[in-house]
Design a protein that fits this description.
alpha/beta; Rossmann fold; six-stranded mixed β-sheet; 37% helix
Length: 255
Amino acid sequence: MQNILNVEKIEKYYGNKGNITKAIDNISFKVNEGEFLGIMGPSGSGKTTLLNCISTIDNVTTGKIVINNKDITVLKAKALEKFRRDELGFIFQDFNLLDTLTAYENIALALTIQNREIKEIDNLIKEVAKKLEITEILSKYPYQMSGGQKQRVASARAIVTEPSLILADEPTGALDSKSSRLLLDSFEKLNKEYHSTILMVTHDSFTASYANRILFIKDGRIFNELIRGNDTRKEFFNKIIEVVTLLGGDVSNVL
C-alpha cells in the first residue's frame, strides 16, 4: 500500500528567546493510501498546529512532512501553491462556501482554477454530486441550504479534484446530530468505496469513531494510538472515551 503522508520528527516553536512555546514536540507518523485517520486532543494540545503544518498553512521549525513523495517543507511559494491546489482537499468547520455562487459553481471553482475543460468539469461535478447525494441542490445558493447540505457541498469541492489527501478540520463542529451523521456516512463511503485518504481533526468522540485509526495528541506529543480493526463503531467509540478520559481527566475537557 502506498504511503501518502509521512511526518518525520517535526517540531514547531512560537515566540522569541524570552518566551518560547513548543507547540509540536518531535511528532512522527505515517498515513497510507485509503486510510481514514482521526486526530484528537484537548484544547492547546497541538493538534490544530499539526494540521496547519500538514496543510501548508504553517511551517515546521524542524523535521519534514512528505505528501505523495514531495517534501512540502522545502517547497518555494509558487510550487507550494500548485501543490496545495493539486494534492490537497480542505473541509472546514464553517464551510467556506461563496454566498454568491450556487453549489454547482462552488464545486466548479476548484476545477476552474486547474484550467479543466468545461465538459470535464460538468462530468466530474455530476459524478461527485451523486456520490455525496447532493444532485438535487446543485442549483441552490448557500443561503438556501441546511448546514449539512453546505458541508456536503464543501466536501464535494474538496474531493472533486481527486486530491492525494483530504484534510478535515472539525467538519461536524457546526452541524446538528442528524447532519453530522449524514456527513460522516458520506466520509465513510468516500473512504471505503472510493479509497479517499482522509485526515480529520475533531474534539468529538462520536465523529472520531468513524475513522479507522486515531492519534491522540497531548502537550505537543503523541499520547496514544487506537486502531479500530474489527471493532464495531460502538466498541471503537467506547475505547475512544477511555483514552479521552485519560487525556484530560475529564471527558468534558476534550469533547
